[in-house]
Design a protein that fits this description.
Radius of gyration: 23 Å
Helix content: under 10%
Structural class: mainly beta
Number of strands: 19
Order of helices and strands: EEEEEEEEEEEEEEEEEHEE
Oligomer: single chain
Length: about 280
């Protein structure tokens, strides 16, 4: 058993445990067991608030870890511009606060020369990602057993999900453009934000919300954008990772430019920089 400030204790044979002299505050309580020859690793994690007064009783239910095995498939006429072994398939927990770390090997999920991979020690709702991808390449689809896992989370429930296929493509649209102010003059500083019209896709792990700053020539470029319906805006500046905040994106809806992207498109936009505090 471990707590976020480093305290730990062993669990008794009857499943009970105790932490003593814990200062009041917010903590994360986690439990885990190592894998053995006949059973997978198990873990549980829960946030708790410790106050004064009577001892607090907490119940934990562990979940068994599972794995995903499969292969990376490359679209196009030629091979991937980088070696397959440079790629790493990774797990992206839906609930990061409840995510559990088993201390997996650094190469867990490493893609082999033949494109095959195995990602172990998965617990809870998870999405799959892969990287680092070459410039202009993106994940077209992640499929396993007839299920489309490209955008939807899944759970292994302690099992091995075999036969996953991660398809990479260089054929997704490219979006370029320039920025101007309200008077129509070119702007050489600012950030373009491209985000799906569908708010349910405003999830950081899906990487469908894209941003780009203009270069020295006043042009911004977004490569390998997933086809779909988008909204585009330009702002003077944006705080790091602010574009992954759904509340912030909602404030940008009004006045945004609608953009429809299809396979192979090369779309050019001209965006008016949205001054702070304006709609």
């Amino acid at each position: 058993m471990m707590m976020s400030m480093g305290q730990s204790t062993r669990v008794s044979p009857d499943g009970t445990f105790a932490f003593r002299n814990v200062a009041p505050g917010d903590y994360v309580l986690s439990a885990r067991t190592a894998a053995t020859a006949d059973r997978p690793a198990e873990a549980a994690k829960v946030p708790i608030i410790v106050g004064g007064g009577e001892p607090q009783e907490v119940h934990l239910m562990t979940s068994a870890s599972g794995s995903v095995t499969g292969r990376v498939v490359v679209e196009g006429d030629g091979p991937l511009p980088v070696a397959m072994t440079k790629l790493l398939v990774r797990a992206m927990p839906v609930d990061r606060e409840a995510a559990m770390n088993f201390g997996a090997a650094p190469d867990n999920g490493r893609v082999k020369e033949d494109g095959s991979f195995e990602l172990q020690q998965l617990v809870g709702p998870t999405r799959l990602g892969i990287g680092p991808l070459p410039d202009g390449w993106a994940v077209r689809q992640i499929e396993q057993g007839g299920r489309d896992l490209t955008l939807d989370p899944f759970e292994t429930q302690g099992q091995t999900l075999a036969g996953a296929a991660i398809t990479l493509t260089p054929r997704f649209p490219t979006v370029t453009g320039t920025l101007r102010d309200a008077q129509g003059k070119s702007v050489l500083a600012g950030t373009a934000i491209l985000f799906p019209d569908e708010a349910s896709l405003w999830v950081e792990d899906l990487t469908v919300v894209r941003t780009a700053r203009v270069d020295q020539t006043g042009v911004f470029t977004l490569k390998a954008v997933r086809p779909g319906e988008y909204l585009a805006v330009a702002v003077p500046a944006v705080v790091n990772n602010q574009w992954n905040d759904p509340e912030y994106l909602e404030t940008l809806r009004e006045g945004a430019t609608r953009v429809s992207l299809k396979e192979g498109d090369l779309k050019r936009l001209e965006l008016v920089v949205k001054a702070e505090g304006t709609q």
